[in-house]
Amino acid sequence: MKTSYTISLLIILLTATNIFARPLPVENFKYKKDITLPSKMGESQIVKVLLDEEFYKHSFYGDLRLTLNGEIVPYRIQNAEEISKYTEKLKPDLLFTKKDEMEIYVLELPKLPEGMSYSKLTVTSSYDYETSITLKLGDNPDSFSETKNVFLYKYGSQTSGEIDLGNTKYRYVRLEVENGSNLKFPSVTRSKENKHLYFEKTHQVPNPLLEENAVLFSFPNEKQTSFQKLKLSFEEKNWERMITVRGKINKKEWDTVFQGTINHDEKEGNFAEIPISSPLSSEFTIQIEDGENQTLHLKEVVTVQPLEEILFFADNLSKDSHYSLYYGNPYQWPANFDPYTYPSSDDLREKTPLEGKLTKEVENVEFGYNLIYPPISGYITTGLFYLGIGTLLVFIFSILRSKRLVASETV
Q1: Do 167 and 267 touch, CB atoms closer than 8 A?
Q2: In 109-159, where do the E strands start and end?
Q3: Is pTM, for the whole model, over 0.85?
Q4: CB crowding 104-143: b at 16 or more within 10 Å, else e
Q5: What are the pLDDT digits (tens) for 78-103?
């Protein structure tokens, strides 16, 4: 009986981590921002909220949680864009047409101004038809890089009428159509591209610390500017170097946020861009390994933080509905929501999101690490694990000792 009890206790201790698998309470987050919603809201609306620089300074990215009256609300996060509504229609040139077993049309679209792309091609016919079209897009008539199949129809007054070009910059279009369609292409629509939103900060380049076959630059980042990308400009135009970027995580421990070989050609512009593995808002260093090459001369460093927004469903709102954003927990696991619980791309096409606003950041008065959640739960789990191992060793030792006593008594 004693042996059975010991084994049961050991199993409970070793599997204790499963008991702790439960939702994380909002009290585990150090910072909080309330969300102000538009005054006019329907019964079911999509809300988008732009994340600000204050959030990035204290968030660990995976720790973002949204609540409604204390209950967790699923959300989607995406890069914020300035949505452009400017479009214009132009007439494409028909370069070639052939009507044999198949009808073939080759179109040349007008030149594109910078920042624009082609979105739709209008198709008409004098007759009713339905046809499958093989659409090819390319930079010139000799080489088409993109192919897709499209179905078009005209039944009296009902017609599909347009081909989605997918915001392409290709200027040449080849269409292979079933014979008898007799298609015409009166216009092509080009649209101004959406502009990604971000904020940048230029940092003063410090004197480098010379190392063996490398140079090290240290940036204090006194204003704790958050960034997810670095832009580096050197006096030299063409180069290839191993670059390591390290930053202070939680203002204490240094961590490598990028390490790799960067190639730069003057045709790519003045800056080389370096992605950062996770948002950083503390001091950082840039190490450039020259090897046997001449030392590069760094002349400009810019940190870039793409702006992001969260989207969520705001259902059945009342006067007591209170949305809040919680963050500031380096031990929190990333959110993982059912994709049907937050707005999809189809939802966003059907409904225009309403804009919510973040209030000023405050420290969460309810903050305090819970015993059953990280980091304290990790310490407890580790302690229980070693306690379980110790109990197992004691149990094994007691069995061996009992056998030894039995053996000595039979001698």
Answers
A1: no
A2: 116-122, 124-125, 129-138, 146-155, 158-159
A3: no
A4: ebbbebeeeeeebebbbbbbebeeebebebebbbbeeeee
A5: 988 877 778 899 999 999 999 888 89
